[in-house]
Amino acid sequence: MSQKTIYVLNGPNLNLLGMREPEIYGRDTLADIESRCVALLEGTDFGLVFRQSNHEGQLVDWIQEARTEADALILNPAAYTHTSVALYDALKALSIPIIECHLSNPHARETFRHHSYVSLAANGVIAGFGAIGYELAIRAILSQVK
Ligand code: DQA
Asked: Which residues have a Cβ under 8 Å from the Cβ of 102 and sit 6 or more positions away?
């Protein structure tokens, strides 16, 4: 059984999860979500790299790192979803499965959240299920990456 790696990258303000607009994003912290992802991968041959940054360039660097270090990527780009050509370009250089993940459903919110640069490069999108969305994304990867 060769060890595989799932990268989970989180964008700006997600460090405040649990405190930030809980009516929209829920009360789970990012650490809670990471723990659930780790638990879900127990007994599988997948390891987890789980990170958050408020900085676009740092996210670009991590996406580039995922080119060689990861077997799949789950990305919640947060506000950069709607603005970042740089993240889109970095994602286009990957040849691993990419899942875009959002706690809320951006399509049910302000119109500026309706467009995603990241969706153009993603294999799939999970949105609107809160913290459980990360677990759904991991399940999707487990069913697809052998
Ligand atoms: C988000 C949705 C984005 O529109 C927003 O900017 C976020 C979080 C989500 O997980 O629902 O910061 O990506």
From this structure: 76, 81, 125, 126, 127, 128, 133
